[in-house]
Here is the input.
Amino acid sequence: MIRATSVLRRDVLAGEIVDRIVLDHGDRHRRRMAMRGVGGLSFLLDLPEPTVLDDGDALVLQDGRLVWVEAAPERLLEIRAADDHALKRLIWHIGNRHIPAEIGADAVYIAYDHVLAEMVRGLGGSAEPVERPFRPEGGAYAGEAAGHHHHGHDHHHPHSHDAVPG
Here is the structure.
């Protein structure tokens, strides 16, 4: 089976695109995985280390051909608030839950979760379901991808990750 061994970022993309893959945000963070393009090309993703693939990147096959990466639409919550301060407060509450989030200029996007939607509404924000590609923030720790993090310290401090502070 032909292998894809490197990634070309969308800003330096050049070459023959022979197929495309459509991946959700979880599947865009991989190192090794059998894949099949929309056009039927089967190949093995075989990167040296786990890598976050962005919408518009390309996987480079051993023979130099390219497979386009497309971010799949996902069911998300679009979270908004009446003003900037209220949105920052909602972001703090979401961050305390340690879930992947995409932060825009006037909205935050998270994976659809009816419990978190009710939490946001209870705090005065809006949480509307939307279908769109999910591009969560990368983490604060080196080499980490969105939604896949390890703190790098003993996690013993006096708060619960399940409780939502009021």
